[in-house]
Amino acid sequence: PATTGLYELRYVLNEGRRTLASVPVEVVDAEIGIAGAAIVRAGTDVDVSWSSTINARDFITIVPAGADEGSSDGYIRVGKANKGRLSAPEASGLYELRYVLNEGRRTLASAPLEVVAADAPLDDGAGLSAPETAATGETITVTWTGGGEGADQRIALALKEQPDFSWISAQKIEAGQSMELKMPDEPGLYEVRYLDVSNRKLLGRSVVEVK
User: Fold this and answer.
1) What is the DSSP letter of 176?
2) pTM higher than 0.70, yes or no?
3) Which end of the chain is less congested by CB atoms within 10 angstroms, N or C?
């Protein structure tokens, strides 16, 4: 059962429905942990992990913060995995990542998630700054105030929809807190990213519209 409490396992005669034997069973809450990014852009991928699986039909979902128990708006079944990927909602706001029991639709674990605008800058310690707009082929100056601890740190230029650790160009940071980047010849939305490649961390990003 999905509800905790005291139960009985019974051997019941089909004829007359009489119980011939029984043993007590206590159902307790499972210990489940769930984790994912704290802040993501609207419509982007959200990588989620969970500590264990109760039933393969259980599911992971993203719902508005405080949504009713059993709510879901798009989900993935946990199956035999301990991680998966969902798409962030298109509307910015506060949400929850939830591990939900298929039986009874009860939430076993949750984690907060903030969804920000699709073009919002995100930073995780780099203090990265870049112009919001640039002309095609223009050279811009990118600055930062922080950084990571890895030996291989780079400023990367990527299409906005590219995976975090792929890029059009990337320059290793040797010294200083600024760098010049030449913008592509094609108009569009691009991202400047501060990558700690050694530790596989994205410490800052800023959207630049090339037009």
Assistant:
1) S
2) no
3) N
Distance CA 165, CA 28 (A): 42
pLDDT band at 75 (very low <50, low <70, confident <90, very high): very high
Which one, of 55, 154, 145, 41, lies nearest residue 99 by Cα?
Answer: 55
For tokens 């299409």, the residue is 159
Are 62 and 74 spatial neighbours (Cβ–Cβ below 8 Å)?
yes
160 to each of 51, 73, 120, 132, how far by Cα in Å?
31, 25, 11, 13
Question: What DSSP state is assigned to residue 184?
Answer: P
- pLDDT tens readout for residues 147-168: 888 889 999 999 988 888 999 9
Bridge-based pairing state of the strands 201-210 and 122-123: antiparallel
Mean of pLDDT values over 42-50: 90
Enumerate domains of the chain plus CATH numbers: 34-116 (2.60.40.10), 122-210 (2.60.40.10)
Pairing of strands 107-116, 139-143: unpaired
Looking at residue 125, its pLDDT comes to 83
DSSP letter string over 95-146?
EEEEEE-TTTT-EEEEEEEEEE-TT--EESSS--B--SEE-TT-EEEEE-S-
Provide the sign of the torsion angle of the four alpha carbons 56, 31, 45, 147, taken in this order. Answer: negative
